Here is the input.
Amino acid sequence: MMYYLLYWGVKSGKFKESDLIDILVRARQHNVRSSITGALIYCQGTFIQLLGGPELEVRRLFDSISRDERLAALDVVSQGNISQRHFDSWAMKYGEIDQETIAKLEDYPISDVSKYLKNAPAIRLLSLMGRLGIPNADDAGKPIEP
Here is the structure.
């Protein structure tokens, strides 16, 4: 049995765009060692992240994330046991998305991305992540092995 945790976070004033690459590199290294997989979407200062793996490892990682001063707000959308992982071949799938893309994918006008991402049901967020077709690539566009 695997465990998953889906959360949203909002960047703080301490977050620099250059932090994103560092976070992804470290996350991928840590996740491989800890048998964690997942996906991260960044949109206009808001993060949506899905983590999956052994429950203790996922909880430890989220505890560490929740103490990161680069996040001003953080909330769990959904968590629990699952029979199989989402994004099981990704150490950390990543993508950036904008308001227009979300509106097109959802076929619904989005006026406030942060509000939408914070209030959307878990199933909508998982569907959004799955429909993005985000490549697992580093900052130079080279594939990163999970």
Q: What stands out?
A: The mean pLDDT is 82.
